[in-house]
Amino acid sequence: MSLHGIIAVFADPEALTEAACTMRARGYRRMDAFSPFSVRGLAEILGMPKSRLPWVVLGGGILGAVLVYALILYSVEIDYPVNVGGRPLHSWPAFAVIAFEAAILGAALAGFVGMLSANRLPRYYHPVFNAGSFSYARGGKFYLFIEAADPKFRKGVTKGQLTRLGAQSVEEVEA
Amino acid sequence: MAEAAARSTAVLRGRHDFPEISGRIGAIVLDGRLPRHFWTAFFFCFLLVLVFLYSITYLISVGVGAYGIDIPVAWGTMISNFVWWIGIGHAGTLISAVLLLLRQPWRASINRFAEAMTLFAVAMAGLFPILHLGRPWFFYWLLPLPNTHMHWPQWRSPLVWDFAAISTYATVSLLFWYMGLLPDLAVLRDRAKSRAGQLFYGILALGWRGSAFHWARYQTVYFLMAALATPLVVSVHSIVALDFTFAITPGYHSTIFPPYFVAGALLSGFAMVLTIAIPLRWAFSVEDLITLKHMDNAGKLMIAAGMIVIYGYASEAFFAWYSGEPYERAMMWQRAFGPYAPLFWVMLACNCGALQLLWFRRVRLNMPLLFAIALVINIGMWLERYIIVVTGPSRDYLPSSWGEQSLTWLDFGILFGSVGTFFALVFLFIRILPAITIFEVEELAEEKAQAT
Fold first, then answer.
1. Which of A92, A170, B318, B319 falls between 20 and 30 A from B150, CA-CA?
2. CB spacing of B446 vs A13 below 8 angstroms
3. Chain A: residue nearest B168 by CA?
4. Mean pLDDT, residues B163-182
5. Residue B152's pLDDT is what?
6. Whether B410 contacts B66, CB under 8 Å
């Protein structure tokens, strides 16, 4: 059993945000925070780069629309062209409707799958669940986690710093 | 007095700490000790599920002639049920997506069951076009599948657009709903005492642990999904309206249909939200989470959507006259004074008459009355769809080909069967999944605590 890191419990989101800010300023880079709901700005404080997910969603939308439009074009122009009273084979206003639906479908699927894979979910095991003080379900607890792999990590020092930041409890987490 | 009024219309009433919120909402699911009237109501819905299954089996084995449709009115209750159900679904998406984008805090405690309502309503709606087909087992011919007789779907047909729109809508609603559920499933996973519960919720929660990085990506995508769902809703019901308007039948061929159908969808959808929410908040004593403010706002949205629907009725009648088309005029006259006239006037009494009561705040805050109005509007909106579907074909160009259809037991078996199945699904959902969004209510409580 190796040491994975240290987890500190805070009573409210402000205390957690403040602690994350201070620890970041002290040079800690490998941190994570856990909260029962989204705390605004916390991820940026912890050093998360700007998310590329909006581009993934846009890409999914374009891909869906292009694929479906190409399929329709192939079917009406190449595979089974039917000339009805000389009307154009390529009746784009009608085809745009289905392409629009396909764009929405592609974008939504790309967003959902992209969110899960960027978050490395689904995940069967994570060390944070080993911490006795960690309870996602109880709500009302806000956690700051510092990895042992962090270059600034010194077990005793880090623990002391977290306690002085007002943590309710500080606990070592096994991997 | 003013203070009391402010309290009665708050989005969240009283003080709440987080363990209490997640405990109370989680307990509805995990303790499994639901009140007896819950199971009694479920039992009656389940009887209707059996009626539904019997009716569908009868319809498929005997053929579509077994219910009301006849020549010349070959579209009947399957189409009106379809439009009615899909419309009910739209209010759920409006609550969960549009109100999220507009950052309306009052959506937090009702969005979950509104989304579930959307999902089940779309599931019901999706059945009807298939049952309407003469040979339902060939419905997959609407898909562009490679097959031996080299069929492609007719891409220029609104019926194929409809297939694309409904399947997209069902998929996106499911994704949006499941994504909203993820953090709450993790709460249930950690709160579950039984091994089976831990496994069930654990697998569904996908290992969610509330990391700040996860939350940031989650919020980004959740907002984008809401932004995608909003035009989707409008497009879905516009396409449903195009199913009618592409035909040159008098009474179908009208440019007002797409926006008027979307407004009608919202009206009937909000009526269904109230039909579910009023008993739900009473039966589970969550009046402090789903407050009178929610009921009040839903009532206001109903009157807003309803007035657009009334404008649609007026515009339809006016342009039938103003167009100078004898066929359109005859159709409109026959709609109001012909064989289907009683239905038409009942519809007007429900959707235009009863609706006006919602202008009064006292009515919007009176739960039994509001519930009654919601039921009346549900009925009125079903009648509206039925009238649109049948009156056009029954009075088209040649008086020699005029004719009516009448409803048989099978029409009612399938309609009430689908209503029962819908509510049975809602009951199962309340039993198995958290019907109120835990993490958003917690966020609301936190914001409220900061404000005071």
1. A92
2. yes
3. A105
4. 94
5. 87
6. yes
A94 contact B CB<8A: yes
- Contact map slice: B 227-246 vs A, CB within 8 A: 228-229, 231-232, 235, 239
**Whether the Cβ atoms of residue A31 and residue A147 lie closer than 8 Å to each other:** yes
In this structure, CATH architecture of domain A3-50+125-174: 2-Layer Sandwich (3.30)
What's the mean pLDDT when you consider all of chain A?
Answer: 90
Going from N- to C-terminal start, the domains of chain B cover 13-451
pLDDT tens across B412-444, in order? Answer: 999 999 999 999 999 999 889 988 888 888 888
For B170, nearest residue in chain A (alpha carbons): A105
**A119 near B CB under 8 A:** yes
**Other Cβ atoms within 10 Å of A70 Cβ, number:** 11
B254 backbone dihedrals φ, ψ, rounded to 5°: -150, 135
The structure tokens listed for A160 are: 């002391």
Which residues in chain A have their CB less than 8 angstroms from residue B183's CB? 36-37
Mean residue pLDDT across chain B: 89
CA distance A145 to chain B (A): 10
| Domains in chain A: boundaries | 3-50+125-174, 53-118
Residue pair B285/B356 in contact (Cβ under 8 Å)? The answer is no
Distances (CA, A) of A137 to A129, A142, B188, B325, B434: 12, 12, 7, 66, 13
What span, in angstroms and rounded, lies between the C-alpha atoms of B33 and B37? 12
Beta carbons of B119 and B113 less than 8 angstroms apart: no
The answer to whether B156 faces chain A, any CB pair under 8 Å, is: yes
- Mutation target vs B (from A112, A120, A123, A143; most B CBs, 10 A cutoff): A112
- Look at residue B334 in the predicted model and tell me its pLDDT: 93
B82-91: per-residue pLDDT in tens? 999 999 999 8
Please answer yes or no on whether B217 and A119 come within 8 Å at the CB atom: yes
For residues A115 and B221, the answer to whether their CB atoms sit within 8 Å is yes
Return the structure tokens found at B209: 């642990």
Alpha carbons B58 and B447: distance in angstroms, whole number: 55
Chain B residues in contact with A11 (beta carbon < 8 A) = none
Residue B44 scores a pLDDT above 90:
yes
Looking at residues A90-95, what average pLDDT do you find? 93
Contact list, A112 vs chain B (CB under 8 Å): 175, 179, 221, 225
Q: Convert the pLDDT of each residue in B215-228 to its tens digit.
A: 999 999 999 999 99
Contact A98 B164 (CB under 8 A): yes
CATH superfamily of domain region B13-451: Formate dehydrogenase/DMSO reductase domain (1.20.1630.10)
Mean pLDDT of all residues in B231-254? 92
Contacts of B295 (CB under 8 A, 6+ apart): B274, B277, B278, B364, B365, B367, B370
Q: CB-based contacts of B240: which residues, under 8 Å, 6+ apart?
A: B82, B83, B86, B162, B165, B261
